[in-house]
């Protein structure tokens, strides 16, 4: 598990993480490693973008939360 300011990650399987809110423990989305980077999706599985790193994907989620 890796902590961020308002979210934390739980590895679901290798290359895929679920994102939860730190305070409410509610799902916030997921990140999946792909050949093109890290694909970020929201809690409804809608694509939010592809990022070069896990940290950039989390920053992308933070920007819209």
Concise overview:
The protein is of the alpha+beta class and 65 residues long. The protein has 1 helix and 6 strands; from the N terminus they run ββββββα.
Which properties best describe this structure?
65 residues; alpha+beta; six-stranded antiparallel β-sheet; 1 helix
Please characterize this protein's 3D structure.
The protein has 65 residues and is an alpha+beta fold. The protein has one domain. The chain is 17% helix and 52% strand. It contains one helix and six strands; from the N terminus they run ββββββα. It has one helix spanning 54-64; strands at 2-3, 7-13, 16-21, 27-34, 37-42, 47-51. It has a six-stranded antiparallel β-sheet with strand order 1-2-3-4-5-6, with helices on one face. The longest helix has 11 residues, at 54-64. The radius of gyration is 10 Å and the shape is globular. The relative contact order is 0.21.
Topology:
Elements: E1 2-3, E2 7-13, E3 16-21, E4 27-34, E5 37-42, E6 47-51, H1 54-64
Antiparallel strand pairs: 1-2, 2-3, 3-4, 4-5, 5-6
Strand order of the largest sheet: 1-2-3-4-5-6
Strand content: over 45%
Order of helices and strands: EEEEEEH
Q: What does the overall shape look like?
A: globular
Unreliable stretches covering 5 or more consecutive residues: none
| Main pleated-sheet profile | 6 strands, antiparallel
How much is the radius of gyration in Å?
Answer: 10 Å
State the end-to-end distance: 20 Å
Output the number of helix runs: 1
Number of strands: 6
């Amino acid at each position: 598990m890796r902590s961020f300011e308002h979210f934390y990650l739980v590895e679901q399987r290798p290359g895929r993480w679920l994102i939860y809110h730190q305070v409410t423990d509610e799902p916030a989305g997921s990140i999946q490693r792909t050949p093109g980077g890290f694909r970020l999706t929201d809690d409804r599985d809608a694509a939010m973008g592809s990022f070069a790193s896990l940290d950039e994907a989390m920053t992308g989620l933070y920007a819209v939360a």
